[in-house]
Design goal:
This protein has helices at about 10, 55, 80, 90-105, 120-130, 150-155, 170-175, 180-195, 220-235, 265-280, and strands spanning about 40-50, 60-65, 90, 110-115, 140, 160-165, 200-205, 205-215, 240-245, 285. It has about 300 residues and is an alpha/beta fold. It has one domain (about 40-295): Alpha-Beta Barrel (TIM Barrel), CATH 3.20.20. Strands 1, 2, 3, 4, 5, 6, 7, 8, 9 and 10 form a ten-stranded mixed sheet that branches. Helix 9 (about 220-235) runs parallel beside helix 10.
Length: about 300
């Protein structure tokens, strides 16, 4: 696919960019599940130091937080932008400039956060930025709920995939994210991501190419989480890195879901980490200490936009 010839209107006129396949015309002001229109909307672009060490490094990851989300988890820590759609409309040219500005700030990479519903526009922006001298890796940081066809569009554009893998069973996926096909969609998308990147490549402890799969342990979700870790390791072994996270933060909107209106206990998290070690997982990341904190939630104040 010629990246320069991508026409956003072809994708936004009858949108099937994510597995929900809304088939709505975003060009006509209609919005689907992601709530995003046809114009790029973003809420923050800045150096971020709270990703995995091989992504943030010492200088930070150049994160761009996009507004809207095709998954819409009830417990999302970025709820203001994912569901309330806080953000500022920008052009493709401005997005290309932002990428170059982050590179000038010495970012280790460009980190696209929840970008799936803007992929055609992002591909064009990256192409323009590369014409202007962009040379650092591009990270695709997503919920994992992706269309395989959309991921295929990113081949040769994205260097590092950083997807979540949230659910194994349908019950949790439907209750917290309104979809029963999460595992099916995420597993197929991940397979394509791994096909594109192969085994990880590092340069001075900074990842240049590869896949890191994140899994956030939810309160009471240990059994489901174990199934996910087992699936990931048995399917991909050491080809991918697995990041096991305990930073779940119960925000205001989860009061309607009392079973997850608490932090993950130390015992729950240790049990999941121990299980991963027993399976043989070596390429991975864990979080230590008290990480469930709103400090992980940046200010969506249009900085850098």
């Amino acid at each position: 696919m010629d990246r320069k010839q991508i026409r956003e209107d072809e994708y936004y006129r009858d949108c099937t960019l994510c597995p929900r396949n809304c088939h709505i015309s975003r060009l006509d002001g209609k919005v689907g599940y992601c709530r995003a229109g046809a114009e790029i909307t973003a809420a923050r672009a800045a150096l971020h130091h709270w990703e995995e060490p091989c992504i943030s490094g010492r200088k930070g990851s150049g994160t761009v937080f996009f507004s809207g989300c095709s998954l819409g988890c009830v417990y999302c820590q970025n709820y203001d932008i994912s569901r309330n759609l806080a953000g500022k409309i920008i052009t493709t040219d401005r997005l290309a400039e932002i990428f170059l500005e982050l590179q000038e700030q010495k970012a280790h990479n460009i980190n696209l956060v929840t970008p799936g519903h803007y992929v055609p526009s992002i591909i064009k922006a990256i192409g323009r930025a590369k014409e202007g001298g962009l040379h650092i890796p591009v990270v695709y940081n997503s919920s994992g709920y992706e269309s395989v066809e959309t991921v295929k569009m990113l081949e040769g554009v994205v260097d590092i995939y950083l997807p979540d893998f949230k659910y194994y069973g349908q019950e949790m996926a439907y209750r917290y994210s309104g979809c029963r096909d999460y595992f099916e969609a995420a597993s197929q998308a991940l397979e394509e991501m791994v096909r594109q990147t192969g085994e990880a490549v590092f340069e001075e402890e900074i990842m240049r190419k590869g896949v890191i799969v994140r899994h956030l342990l939810l309160p009471g979700g240990l059994a489901d989480s174990k199934k996910i870790i087992k699936y990931l390791y048995e399917t991909y072994k050491d080809t991918i890195y697995i990041s096991i996270m305990n930073q779940y933060t119960p925000l205001e909107q989860v009061k309607e879901y009392p079973e997850i209106n608490r932090k993950v206990t130390e015992k729950e998290y240790e049990a999941l980490v121990d299980y991963a070690l027993e399976l043989g997982v070596e390429n991975g990341f864990i979080q230590e200490g008290e990480t469930a904190s709103e400090s992980f939630i940046p200010a969506f104040d249009y900085r850098g936009i």
